[in-house]
Amino acid sequence: MKTSCIIVEDMQIAADFLRKFCDKSELIEVRGHFFNVAEALDFLDKDKVELIFLDIEMPGASGFELLDRLTYSPKIILTTSKTEYAFDAFQYNVTDYLKKPFTYKRFLEAIDKITPPAAQGQTPAPIPSGQAADTDFLFIKAEDKLVKLVKDEIFFIESMKDYVKFVMAGKNYITYSTLKNLEEKLNGQAFLKVHRSYLVNINKIDDIRGNILYVQGHQIPVSKDHKEELLKRLNIL
Amino acid sequence: MKDFNPGKFVFNTRLDARFLDELFDGDTVYTQHVFEDFLRDLPDYWKSTATAWQNGDRTALRASIHKCKTLFGYVGFTDIQRICQEFENSCADNTIGDLRSRYQVLLDKKEEARVIIEEEYTRLKSFNGL
Fold first, then answer.
1. Which residues of A touch B38 (CB under 8 A)?
2. What is the ipTM of this complex?
3. Where do the domains of chain A lie?
4. What are the chain A neighbours of B69 within 8 Å (beta carbons)?
């Protein structure tokens, strides 16, 4: 049984390629191609498909906005020309991320990751809009690959304009994101903003002297605005 | 000595032949079709780019170059893709004036690409007997 899909893609040439690959595979049935998010959502209101090939940068709403507005959880394969979205993509728990133009071999690798819910006797479960999987790890795009970081091993995260640096034991990673974005993603977990440029893993704090945190040999400034919240979160006797 | 394989279409050396071989897997009819699509779509995409440039609209310019970048990729201009990516990145931090020389480079590359793909399309038609 073929997996039903739609293609949300504003470039005709890219959509044609994708449709050709789907047909060639004999595994995927394309139910429609939509040039923008609004048209795709209209279709999905009436017809639920198991898989969505989704571009990110399109006129009007972005692919991520479609993900935020989905009322069920189909498999998602993102198709984009930019690698900068990889971090957000994996926060949305997408099945795969294809950088255009991609080969048939790469397409098949992505398809291999899909198990049709129908084959498992499952129906797609509703999910809260845009909610990422609550895991003890995250993936970041760094050094031309997706690197898995265990959250508890991160000492702190430092803002570097449009990038952030993850500081860990023996190795640092830089990726394209903002501290604000990470603060939202890690909300309610062990990470706390102590300065406009720093999110700190409170489990890794060794001591505090005045307005300086000592974190595994690193000194992190604490701003006046964040000190009260920091003291609340620490288990002070 | 250059290898000669009468059964294999040999791409212009300006194109990333290795990537195109992977992308099209030897399907020269589909290659021809995609090259035709490139020639159809490029003028429209570049028109948006030129309009954004004339209006000094860096956001629209970046978005438009982003589309062109992907299009160049489908016909094997991986080097122009890189130039487009650098231009996209530059749009965020530079004024239109700062971008002028890079824009001119892209304009020249676009025109070079168009001519090469027109020639390749003609050769493919002949190769495919279509």
1. 13
2. 0.87
3. 3-120, 138-233
4. 81
